[in-house]
Amino acid sequence: MAVSDYLALIVMAIAAWSQYRCYFLQEELSRCSEKEELGNKVVSQSEIQEHLDDGEEDPQIVDRRLLAGGSSVWCSGSNNTDRMCQFHNLCFSQKHKEFVFLSGSKSIAFGLPENPFDPALVDLSSVPNHNTQYFGFSHLPVAALEDTNTVAVFRGKHLLMNRFNPSNIMHVFHDDLLPLFYTMLQSGLMAKGDFKPTARLVFLDGYPAGEFMDLYASLFNYRPILRDEITSDSDSADQDSLVCFEEAFVGLSNVTTWYQYGFQVPQGPVPNTLLTAREVRVFTSFVRNQMGARRCEASDDYIVLIKRESTRLILNEMDLVTLVAQGTGLRVLTAGLEDYPIKDLIELVSCSKVLIGMHGSLLILSMFLPVGSMLLELFPYAINPDYYTPYKTLVQLPGMGVAYRSWRNWSPDRSVGHPDALPAHGGIRHLSRQEQKQILTSQEVPQHLCCSNPDWLYRIYQDTAVDIPSILNLLSEGLQECQQSRTEIAPHFPVFPSKVGGIHCDRVKGLRVSWQRPWNIEYMNTNEVRYELWTQETDGDDYKAYILQLEGYTFSEGYEDSKSYRVWVRCLVGSIKGPFSSVVC
Amino acid sequence: MAVSDYLALIVMAIAAWSQYRCYFLQEELSRCSEKEELGNKVVSQSEIQEHLDDGEEDPQIVDRRLLAGGSSVWCSGSNNTDRMCQFHNLCFSQKHKEFVFLSGSKSIAFGLPENPFDPALVDLSSVPNHNTQYFGFSHLPVAALEDTNTVAVFRGKHLLMNRFNPSNIMHVFHDDLLPLFYTMLQSGLMAKGDFKPTARLVFLDGYPAGEFMDLYASLFNYRPILRDEITSDSDSADQDSLVCFEEAFVGLSNVTTWYQYGFQVPQGPVPNTLLTAREVRVFTSFVRNQMGARRCEASDDYIVLIKRESTRLILNEMDLVTLVAQGTGLRVLTAGLEDYPIKDLIELVSCSKVLIGMHGSLLILSMFLPVGSMLLELFPYAINPDYYTPYKTLVQLPGMGVAYRSWRNWSPDRSVGHPDALPAHGGIRHLSRQEQKQILTSQEVPQHLCCSNPDWLYRIYQDTAVDIPSILNLLSEGLQECQQSRTEIAPHFPVFPSKVGGIHCDRVKGLRVSWQRPWNIEYMNTNEVRYELWTQETDGDDYKAYILQLEGYTFSEGYEDSKSYRVWVRCLVGSIKGPFSSVVC
């Protein structure tokens, strides 16, 4: 990539990011007071298994001889978005506010790119190629460590990452928790049998702990370390201290992300995501297990209606609850983050028959909906449901077994906008009269980039008096569909035939080769079986190739009785190729 | 790669491999009796730390519900030679003699190539792309497991691999032990601080335990499992049993290999190997540590002469020992595998001043030679030392600090050939009279492919009466050189500048930007420091780029006082680029 190319990307990303931050500014501001309390942030002890070894709980001032051999690093992957790096003795310099690699006599480095700043070594977040998420480090000879430096080493394994937007539960699950689970599995930071995490999280994003800290902590068993805890400002600038991690894995895998937020093209599903229902279910089952959630029971015949307290309201919520209960014969529970801790919401949704809500972050809980349930997503006036599909994409992943319906308010009369609100909450008074008019009269928000399109913000923050009869229709449709839902999960990996068996050669007339079908073909549900056969003179380089339909063939021409031949055979199932077997004839 | 391409490769590799096997046939045959004793193979208990958890020591017949969720796999890398895969519940079917992936409701697969048999998923050996080293597996739905199947599961972590040639100590170190060490470090199977292995080795090569089994076992703490132990033939063919591994890492990294054996081009150094003295020293220090080896002492002033018992003899060995001792004033110890266990040889060489020997596998121990020592390699008549350089390449890796000299017998009179020996040991009586004559009269073996060139075999198996005066000269030269040897190990990774500090902007006249040198530049020993600077209108897309020599510059033209600009600066050291810092002006 030429310098000019990626610089342009950086510029775009910076612009988009600064807008994105504005979008959440309000929430951020309200939580700033937490920042001061960080040092004392207490995570419920009963929910978190602390480090097995108490000695690992806190960094220790240690003899710097521990670092004497220097740092080491191993990376795999070909660019910053798919690279994973693991370090030994990765340190953070409090004076320079940079990570440093201590070059020492035992320093090993494999897999580093030639230039780790083109544009970055590793993305700290699963959101790819975003310039606020870049990780890099500087070099320092280990001999340059002064005697007066203080050194603290966190022993054991750590996973260093950025939360992308820790105040939004949709982002928490999509960008952080699901990627964390699969990153840990892939990096050997979690036992693959019982999913027991063995690494401590380190959040480098600089955000305060946030309201979902308990969720990270209880899923991954250790209290995460926040950036503030390793970048203490209390040291004088002359006195450098190092905070080091004995083992540090850096970066989050993005193989499970299914949605992109519109930084470069309008938001939408990630093309060719590798995620299927299988990965979602393995993850949600892990989450429920870590939470000690109860099993669902037959009596769990209820609908969960996501309630919002202050914005994007359902104006006729009470009527909706009553009539949906009447119309479906199911109980309707309303729930939101104001009433329930997130863990209770997860447990509630996990056993529910239907999840209903206005388009919004809590609908991410639809990943917990059981097979045979339904998600009904409601959209305010002038918002096209086809353009905003993080939840639809999720529940429609192959094999999820969850019906999806969206309801869209087509009637401006049933909509209440808030032109006087703050711009981040859909206010438009800061715009010119003409711009305001254009927004107020448009019938659909055109597709747009993230994150501060005022047209989108105005419309998405409208309150809505929903049309209950059409919602009842959609519910009825969806409930019928989900009763029939099958959950055969097509694996996203190729399934291939085994070797052919009993390959046998007969030289009576020409060359007769026979074999048996691969032993696992009976499990492949296919009748597209063919065979690829190659022959070669044992002492020569010439070979011939054939595609055959049956488990044997006699080659009468072109083969001499006096010569010996090597024959390879493999099975083809459609375009999928099995391994070769061979025999000398 | 087209089918025809890799098939050609396979054909070549098969041909080369079958020749290679012949080369070692003699040794193999003499060890066949071991095969029967395998089940009872006892590895010295005092040297091996058994599994921490006794319950993991042996596979257990288990409830097959352990496998009910199916297998999972994660691979990274782009082809079979650089790919690493890790499995959960990887099973071996005794009936079908294939590894199987149990497709179940919890099966996860990330990073599989579209066709794992083009030509293979993973190389089991560090010797790349060799068709005897290919790993693949078949699929089986977990539901297809019959009730009558017996299932044994090895709990915990395992590393599955092929030894390439376990009867040859050069191959053991180059192909297996060194790659194992770095594969384990990279795969999280070994703590990066204290190098404590946490995985058990599984050798799929099918060779018997072999004389170096103790070495594998004591370095990696567990008794390795042999292929025979998981492919028992005692079960009836109708009754399938599965042997499964709870966690299986498959494949050996080849990043540390430095020599290729001439399968496709004549043997020689691996081009652009990533190995430096640093990786060798970290490994040998690990080996010595695991063996509990003593520290070297000042009194260790001796030469080790590698002795061969039956082939490639030094005919005047006694004179050589006496005169070298006289000429150098150092003790001369003769040692070979017949007299010493390999561990004692390692300890001996680790503290020696000089290692002398005829070209042969024990010279691999030169990796243990201390800094400031010397390797003197002797070659029989008509063998060009420049064509056979595994040991020279090793000790001349950047930073090894070991002097190298080779001595070549130029005189046919000092050479005794063995034309009547077995072909694998240099006999030529199976050849035509003319071929024999050609070999006997040639003055140098031309470069050739592996592994059964009779010219090479005849010459390399000659005994030699070495020329002691010229050897004393080489010793004197080498000892002088190695006293001066420096051991500054140039790291094989790029060292780059940190961010520029204190970037500052002044808008008094035009645009004045200043900054400080990167804080780590003082450690980089360079005076090639330049800066790359980019400016962009905050609200625009146009940017300008500059390369500057100093830590500041005033741009007087082209910048408007009314506009704000974003400025990026980074440091360039030669072609190495640091990270950007930015400021808004």
TrEMBL record, chains A, B:
GO biological process: protein O-linked glycosylation via mannose
Domain annotation Glycosyltransferase 61 catalytic: ranges: 275-373
Annotated compartments: Endomembrane system
Main location: membrane
Keywords in alphabetical order: Glycoprotein, Glycosyltransferase, Membrane, Signal, Transferase, Transmembrane, Transmembrane helix
Single GO MF descriptor: protein O-acetylglucosaminyltransferase activity
Signal peptide: 1-18
Keyword set includes Signal: yes
GO (cellular component) term, any one: endoplasmic reticulum
Pfam families: Glyco_transf_61 (PF04577)
Membrane topology: Single-pass membrane protein
Protein name: Glycosyltransferase 61 catalytic domain-containing protein
Organism: Patiria miniata
